[in-house]
Amino acid sequence: MSEITTVGLDLAKNVFHLVACNHRGKILLRKKLTRARLMAYFAQLPPCLIGIEACSTSHYWARKFGGLGHDVKQIPAQRVKAFLRGNKNDYNDALAIAEAVVRPEMRFVATKSQEQQDRQSLNHYRQSLVGKRTGEASRIRALLAESGIVLAKELAVLRRSLPILLENRDSQFSDTLLMLLQLGYQNLLQLDEQIKQCDWQIKRTTMREPDCLRLMEIPGFGPVVASEFMSHVADGSNFRRGRDVAASIGVVPKQHSSGGREVLLGISKRGNKMLRTLLIHGARSAVSHVGDKQDPISSWIRNTVARVGIHKAIVAYANKMARIGWSVLRHQTRFDPAFVVARRA
After folding, report:
1. CA of 145: how far to CAs of 148, 177, 179, in Å?
2. In whole angstroms, what is the distance from residue 44 CA to residue 38 CA?
3. Helix 155-167 to helix 175-207 angle, to the nearest 10 degrees?
4. Which of 53, 54, 311, 323 would give a disulfide with 242, using CB separation of 3.0 to 4.6 Å?
């Protein structure tokens, strides 16, 4: 036991597999543990490096093992794949994790606190409700289109027009279609109410968080964007610079270079899809409200729009939002538009 320095652990719901190695990488043991015995086993191990894949429940186990004095590192699953040898099984997966975790250039996922996970869960639940509402609205419009009634895609139009259509007793709707439209309208109202509750909770949480309030001073950051950004970046100490944050979100150019010739393509779209979407929506709002404002950041946006067009300017400002947000969190400072433009953040 005293020779064990690295453990690769393949997480599961009930049965866990681990491979333990010494400082030279030699396998000392392979072991299968049930969920009930897992914590007791790691409690009697001397402090060591534990590698796990970043997946469902990984943050929970990382906090638990860290509380026992172990150094826990989470590895993105796609980074582990390159170290897998032979056929895929639980022990080979654990061995691949053990080999990947000691690589000096490996990139790891920062362990989230319970508060960060709660904030992220709230944001993702809200996003799922928005998706359900979009689907319900599309279903209602499709049912109306089958009866020759075509409505615009805006939710406001549907909310305004559907009650009038349902109250029209002389409409061409059959009893079955009328029942379906009424059920759809009730679901739509229910989803609206649930989204409002999530929005209220997000706003209540962000207003009590000084870091979120500082983020909301940046044009394009609202309560939802600030909350999701905080759950992803935390205090910013897990990133060396703002460019790394933008890369982790996927708002940096994808590269396809060879032979010394650099070729930059569209954005990579890697990493946090939800945060990338929110940042681009926030950037679109900021760009659309620039108007004739004369502050440096607004002038930068206008010049960028004139140079590359509005769509590229929106993505460019989303990139800038990520880098400014990291700087605000990492250095515990407030947004200064003059400094941002001067330093080309």
Report:
1. 5, 12, 16
2. 11
3. 140
4. 323
Q: Do residues 254 and 268 make contact, with C-beta atoms less than 8 angstroms apart?
A: yes
What is the residue whose two structure tokens read 């906090």? Answer: 63
**DSSP result, 261-319:** B--EEEE---S-HHHHHHHHHHHHHHHHT-TT--SHHHHHHHHHHHHH-HHHHHHHHHH
Cα separation of the two ends of the chain: 49
- Pairing mode of beta strands 6-10, 49-53: parallel
Q: pLDDT tens, 84-98?
A: 988 889 999 999 999
pLDDT at 169: 63
- Average pLDDT over the chain reads 90
With H, G, I as helix, E, B as strand and everything else as coil, classify residue 173: coil
Enumerate the β-bridge partners of residue 34.
15
Strands (E), 148-262: 253-255
244 exposure class (CB count in 10 Å sphere: 0-12, 13-18, 19+): middle
Q: Please name the residues in contact with 18: beta carbons below 8 A apart, sequence gap of 6 or more.
A: 7, 8, 9, 10, 30, 31, 33, 94
